[in-house]
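Sequence only, no structure available. Ideas?
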Amino acid sequence: MQHIDPAEFEKRLERISEIFSRISQHAEVQAQFRCPYKNRLDQCTAGFGCRHNRKSPDKNHLPLCTSDDQLDYRAAWETETTDYDAMRKELRGLRKEKGAIDPAAGSVRYGGKQSASVNGKTIFDFSDDLQARVPSSCNRSGVCHECVVHVKQGMPALCKRTKAEQFLNDNFRLACQAEVVDASQNIEFGLLRRSPRILQADKSTQFQIDPAVKRHNDGVYFYNEAIDDYRGKIYGMALDLGTTTVVLELIDLESGQSVYTSSFENPQRFGGSDVMTRISYDGGRHQGELHRAIINTLNTEILEMCARLGIERHVIYEIVVAGNSTMRDLFFDLDVQTIGQKPYKSVVEYDLLEGRRDSTALCSTARKLRIRANKNARVFGVPLIASHVGGDVTADLVAIDIASQTETVMLIDVGTNTEVVIGNRDHLVAASCPAGPAFEGGLVTYGMPGYEGAIESVRYTSEGFDCKTIGDVSPVGFCGSGLIDLLAELVRNNLMNPMGVFPRKARELTIVPAQNITFSRADASHLAQAKAANYCGQLIAMRHFGINPDEISRLYLAGGFANYVDPERAVEIGFLAPVPLNRTEKIGNAAAQGARELLLSIQKREQIETLIRGIEHIELETFPDFFDTFVEGCQFKPMPAEI
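Reply:
I predicted one. Tokens follow.
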């Protein structure tokens, strides 16, 4: 047996103890400040999303961790919840301080606020600093595709699109993926989920409430099917699904009372500003993204609504969706390619014509569509009329009670796709006018939807243009009603001729010098074409029906845009038919009102289903003089009184 020197043994034991002590001390420090999921190569081994994750250049390697190891993880577990806000403010202050030390740094701006730009931070990081409410449900990992933002300035300052962003075009990015790589440039971003001005519909109920979902004793029934135990409330939602704006209303199905109303910008804007562009987008390799975008945003709205009202989503039992053919079918995840090709019919309409179904209405479940409502909730898609004349127009007709109209009326639902219906309960003619987005914020240089800061009315005086904005704040651009006013004022005061030409062949006019808001020949051209589509729809429909404007007993103007239009000026430039002004009635958000009534009445569903089957749909482009009429309509002058 080998002899062991006790002194040498003690010496080596002390050395080993010292080594282990240092290891223990190092481990304790690491446990405090280093993320437990970060390995020795600074790679993330976690199986969930984290804001510090960055994809490795080698797709076979783990994601890189960019954490600066300044957060005390152990202390975070021990911190009381009441200290969280203070901790967040301290961390945000450190970020701002870090960004401020570089005098050459650019800025990141949102909604009038700005923060110093810092390389390595994402747009989502800056949204925290600037208090922008960017939606997300995947811990910022790029999976949910909800955090789409519009980069208004500084795209070159951001990293290239990641794999998670391949479905996006133009200047749209995912906030969680768009990382700053050149902090010397200025960046400005905006949200797709903006809240437009809500146009309150007539919420009076002058009919017998008879919803499809009712309470019987202690049970909740959809028609005769038991779907749940009674939880104290029975709610339904009416959804007006517009190309630009979505309006949501929560209804108490037992009392018929409106409980909550909200609106938000249609998040599908990254796929295009009009229906034809979105149809084309959905036919590409990113099919389904537009459906997921609207469902995800709707779910966010529902959760916020429930939190504000203090209710559970499980008491929402039915959702009625009114939208044009494309918007409605995208919502229900149907193929919309046939709507973009002659004769522009939905797959549902083809099924009806070929005898495979007896209605163009749709019925699905919230579970199938992944909507956060009761697991047995039903989703009802308002029936289409024909081609692009969709469920929103059907809902409009419900709102004006067309089934009781005996005199000849005309309904105009003005929007990205304008629809015209003329007639009465015995005979109706309908047409669709692809007006495009020019009057709703698209194509015009300083055009914008009806949000705060939008110029909604214009008058020209000896001192220049007097502009009134939504919210009475500094002007940002023109919404539709402001553009119609502007066009009329320009023609009235010889600042533009009916052909859209400015004096001395100028290319641009300055309207608001302080904000450098201008109006160009190109802007006038886009508006002329959009106006011409409305002109053609009204004129050809009236001529086909055999009626002149002064013979129409009532002109109904539907939609948020139409509600703020000055009818006199709209008639002056040929945007509206010259129906006597005292017969013109603005009916607000009629599609939302109609959807609400359909939610509350089985009888109204059956009534309108029968009526729309007899509507005569006309296709404007099939008329021999369509092109000549369109060219005539491009001029900013009144429509003839004799059709």
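The first strand starts at residue 53 and ends at 54.
Hope that gets you unstuck.
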